[in-house]
Amino acid sequence: MTKILVLYYSSYGHLAKMADAVAEGARSAGADVDVRRVAETAPAEVAQAAGFRVDDSHPLFDDPNQLAQYDGIIVGAPTRFGRMASQMAAFWDKAGGVWFQGQLNGKVGGAFTSTASQHGGQETTLFSILTNLLHFGMTIVGLDYGFQGQMGVDEVKGGTPYGASTIADGDGSRLPSDVELEGARYQGRRIAETAAKLKA
Predict the structure, then answer these.
(1) What is the full per-residue pLDDT of the chain (200 aa) written as tens digits?
(2) pTM as predicted
(3) DSSP labels for 115-145?
(4) Is 43 exposed, middle or buried, given 0-12, 13-18 or 19+ CB atoms closer than 10 A?
(5) What does the DSSP assignment read for 53-96?
(6) What residues does 140 pair with on adjacent strands?
(7) Quick check: 11 and 166 in contact, CB under 8 A?
């Protein structure tokens, strides 16, 4: 059975919801899926002042050496000034041994994200994640235009060909919409399907 890891960081809960949707999509393709989060690295007083919500919805994943057991890894992180949040970057910075040994070469990777506004850095944040995954030797699968939900301007919505996304609004009050969650499911399914084909 294909094993998929959905690895995310979430400050306000948006990426946790998107991670669950990505996992649903991967499971619909027959994959065995683990949803895990990386550790909070912001000082407690900073997290409290910013209103971060304690994320205990999924177990922590803190050992990069465990990455090699997966056929596909889907990484979710919110934007921080146009790049992935430092919490996620810190996790990958600890994975040098995995990179050196080529343990992820040829495995499938993808990314998803959240921003406060429509033009708040979704694509650059996704690229910052994808750049990391490419350096680890992974084959990238985005949110292809087979998912038509990302098309049109009839409503505010995330979604780019580089990965599923959601828009949280400046105060974090907007939760992922049905369309955005469906995009996450679609991408999760496509990544699981691709991983299964490459593993065969």
Answers:
(1) 999 999 999 999 999 999 999 999 999 999 999 999 999 999 889 888 888 888 888 999 999 999 999 999 999 999 999 999 999 999 999 999 999 999 999 999 999 999 999 889 999 999 999 999 999 999 999 999 999 999 998 998 999 999 999 999 988 899 999 999 999 999 999 999 999 999 87
(2) 0.96
(3) ESSTTSSHHHHHHHHHHHHHHTTPEE----T
(4) exposed
(5) PP--SS-B---GGGGGG-SEEEEE--EETTEE-HHHHHHHHT-H
(6) 109
(7) no
